[in-house]
Every structure is written in C-alpha cells, then in structure tokens.
Design a protein that fits this description.
single chain; 79 residues; mainly alpha; 0% strand; Ribbon_hlx_hlx; Arc_rbn_hlx_hlx; FitA-like_RHH
Length: 79
C-alpha cells in the first residue's frame, strides 16, 4: 500500500476530522482513509451511472403525455 503525507492542514479541518473519527470510532488515519476512498471511488463511478442511465432511457423510453398549451396569453382586465 502507498502512503501520503498531508502538510499545512487547517486547524479547523484537523479538528473536524478528529471529531468525525471519534464519532465513527476510528482513528484519524482510518477516517481520512475512508473519506479519501469513498470520494475517489464516487468520482470514478459517477460517469458510469450516467452512461447506464442514458442507455436505459434509449432502450425503454418513457411515454410522456402530450401537453397542449394555448399560445395566446390570458387577458387581464384592469378596472
């Protein structure tokens, strides 16, 4: 496995990471690893979801009712 070092982390971010780790009963390192893994995998998986959605719509197009509209705006009477 590879390792990274994060320098110049804001105190606020460090504190928030520590609080999240405590709430999830993890070490800060494990919490940071979980966040990085989840976010990177989500970025990689998202385009695939869109492609699957596109092909699903092409194969089974939804039947939408036709909406009729009056082209003339309603008249307003001022008294």
């Amino acid at each position: 496995m590879r390792a990274i070092t994060v320098r110049n982390l804001d105190d606020e971010v460090h504190r928030a990471l520590m609080e999240r780790a405590h709430a999830n009963k993890r070490s800060m390192e494990a919490e940071a690893r979980e966040i990085l893994t989840r976010e990177v995998r989500a970025d990689v998986a998202f385009p695939n979801v869109l492609v699957e959605f596109y092909y699903a719509c092409r194969e089974d197009p939804a039947e939408l009712p036709e909406i009729t509209r009056d082209m003339e705006p309603p008249r307003v009477e001022f008294e």
